[in-house]
Amino acid sequence: MFRSTILGLGLAWLSGVAALADLAVSVTYLQQATPRPPVLSNLDPDPENLGIAGARLGLTENETTGRFLNHAYHLDVVEVPEDGDLLSAARTALATSAFLILDMPAADAQRVADLPEAAGALLFNAAAGNMTLRDDGCRANLFHTIPSDAMRADALMQFAVFKRWDKLAMIAGAHPDDIAFATALKRSAVKFGIGTIAEKTWDFDADMRRNAAQEVPLFTQDFGDYAMMLVADELHDFGRYVAYNTWVPRPVAGSEGLRPVAWDRVVEQWGAAQLQNRFVEMTGRDMAPRDYAAWAAMRSLGEAMTRTNADDAATLRDFLLSDGFELAGFKGRPLSFRTWNGQMRQPIPLVTDRALVALAPLDGYLHQRSEMDTLGLDEPESRCEAFK
Amino acid sequence: MRFLHFPIAILLAAPVSAGEVWITNEKDDTISVIDVQTLEVTRTIPTGERPRGIIFSHDYSRVYICASDSDTVQVMDPDTGEILHDLPSGEDPEQFALHPNDRHLYIANEDDAITTVVDTETRTILAQINVGIEPEGMAVSPDGKIAITTSETTNMAHWIDTETRELFANTLVDARPRHAEFAAGGSELWVSSEIGGTVTVFDTATQAEKAKIRFEVQGVHPDRVQPVGFEFSADEKTVFVALGPSNHVAVINAETFEVEDYILVGRRVWHMAFSPDDSLLFTTNGVSGDVTVIDVANREAVKTIKVGRFPWGAATRP
Lengths: 388, 318
Description:
The complex is a heterodimer.
Chain A: H1 2-18, E1 23-32, H2 52-69, E2 71-80, H3 86-96, E3 99-103, H4 106-113, E4 122-125, E5 142-144, H5 149-163, E6 168-172, H6 176-191, E7 198-201, H7 208-221, E8 228-232, E9 252-254, E10 259-260, H8 272-283, H9 289-308, H10 313-320, E11 327-328, E12 334-337, E13 344-345, E14 348-351, E15 356-360
Parallel strand pairs in A: 1-2, 1-3, 3-4, 4-5, 6-7, 6-8, 8-9
Antiparallel strand pairs in A: 10-14, 11-12, 12-13, 14-15
Helix pairs in contact in A: 1-3, 2-9, 5-6, 9-10
Chain B: H1 6-13, E1 20-25, E2 30-35, E3 40-46, E4 51-56, E5 63-67, E6 72-76, E7 83-88, E8 93-98, E9 104-109, E10 114-119, E11 124-130, E12 135-140, E13 146-151, E14 156-161, E15 166-172, E16 177-183, E17 188-193, E18 198-203, E19 208-214, E20 230-232, E21 238-242, E22 248-253, E23 258-264, E24 269-274, E25 280-285, E26 290-295, E27 300-306, E28 311-317
C-alpha cells in the first residue's frame, strides 16, 4: 500500500515536472531485503540507508547540473521486505520509469532484468559482485557500477605480485558470498601467475571473541610458511580475529586487513575529499562501497542526459557504451563502461582502516585498451553475448 | 635531480631579473618563497590551514591566500609575512581571481557550490552566486565585465555578469574543469578539463566553442594526461599547460591551438608562475613536493627546488 503511494507520487512528479523542465527523468532505487546470518561481533552494523544515501547524493549533484540545463531528476526508493514480491514491485516501478538501480543478490537482479517490462529499460546493478552477471549470466539491459569480485581479486593479486608475495594462504568462510570471493581470488592467483593458494574453510562455530588467540594459531599452523594470509569473509564474521593471531606473523588481506574496495573513507586524493565531505555532511557517516556504486549509477545517468540532451533509455544506453562517455569518479581516471558486459571500469583502492595503500591497476600492468581492463573480466575472457 | 648541476651555470651566466615566486604548500600550511635569482627558498611563511589559491594585489603590497580549511582568505604583508587580517570568503575557498579594479575578489567556494564576491577594502561580501558543484577555476575578463567560475562536478563554465552579479550563460565542458583564463585581449576564454583531458577555447562574445585542444604524451596512457593549471606567456603567443599525473607541461601555440612541445617536470604538476621577466617558469609538483624551473626560451627543465608538502598555487612578485 505504502509502496504504491510512493510510486504514484513519482508518476505525478513526472507529469507535473514534464511541463516545466525540458527533460525529466525518474529513477527507482529498488532494494530486496536479504536475510543476514548472525556474525560473531556486532561492532559494525550496516547503515540503514546503505546504497540509498549514495543514490541520493548523486541525485542532488544531477539536480544542480540540471538546474542550468532545465533537466529535472527524481528518485523513488522502494524497499521490498524479505518475503515481499520483488517482481511486482519491479513491474510497478518500470511502469513509471525505465531507470532502476538494483540493490539485490545476482539471481534477483537477473529476474528483474528478464521481466518483459524491463526489455527497453536501463538497470544498474549497484550491489552484486557476482561474476556470472558479467559472464554468461549477463543481460543487455543490466549495467554494473559495483566492481565484480574478479576486479577486487585482481587488484589484490596485482599488489601481491608487485610485492613478490607469491606464496599465499587463505581462510574462506562457508557463506555463498565468501565462496564466490574465494573463487575469484583463486582464479586471479592463476591469472597473475601466482598459482595455487593453500586454502582452509572456516568451519568453527566457537565464539571467537573469547578464544581467537587460542584457535587461530592452531588453525593456521599447518599452512607452513606463506607471504600473505587471505581472508574470504564477506559477511565479516570471523575475519576480524585473524590478524595478529596467525601461527606465523604475516599480513592479512581480502575481506579484512588490506581490502580491495570500490570506495572507502581513506580515499582522499583526486578531489575525493570533496565527495567525502558532501556525503558525510548529508548522512553523518562515511561513504561505503555500495553508496559509491549507487552514486556512480545516478551520476552516469545524469552525465549521459547532460551530454545527449535526451532522456530515453535507448539513447542513454548507447551513449554510456560509447567513447564519448566518461565519469569523473574521484579515483584519478575517467570511468566508463565495458562494451562487452556493461561493467563500469574503475580503479580499485587497496585500503586499510587508516590509509590508502595502493590504487589498482598498479604501475606496470599494461593493456592495449585501458590499464583498468587488467582488472576483472576482459573482453576475450567474458562469455557475455547479450551486449554483442 | 639529473638536471641539477650543469644548467645552473648557464642560468647564472644569463641575466636574470630579481623577484620572487611564492608557492602555497597545501599540506604543510606554509608558503615557500623562491628567490628568482638564486633559485633557492629564502623564506617559509606559516599560513592558515590548507593554503591553495594565491594572488598579489596590483601594487604587490598585499598577498591574498585561500586558506581553504580555515574557511577564510588571508591578507598578508609580503615583506613581513604577517597576516594583516582575514577576509570573509564563504566556506572552503579554493581559487580566486582579482578584478581589474584591484578591489573585488571572486572566490570559488569548493564545498558550497557558490562563488563569493568580496570587497577587499570594506572586507564585506558583496554577493554570493549559486554555481555548479565544486567550483574551482576562476577568471575575470580584462575589461572586468565578465567573471568565470568552472565547476568540477557539474562540468560547466558559468559566465557571471559582474555588474548584476548574475549568471548569464552556462557552457558545458569536458569532465572536471579545473582552470580558466581569458586570452587574446579578453576575446577568448580557455578552460582546462582534468578528467576530460582537454582544453576548450571559447569565443567570449558568443560563448561558442572555438577550439578543443587534446594532448598526447609519449609513453603515458591518455587517462593520466590531465590538464590542470595553465599560463600564457607575456606576449600571449604561447600557453604552458600542467598535465597533472603525466608529469609533463605542454606548450601550446595560442594562435594555431597546436601542441608544440612537452616538458618533463616533477610528479603531479598542478599550477605555475613566470619569473618577472618571463624567462623562467615555475611549476608546482604536488606529489614530489618540489618546484620545477623551466627555461622558457629553450623549453627545458633546468632545476628542481624542494619546497613544502603538496605545493599547489604559485604567484610572482617582482
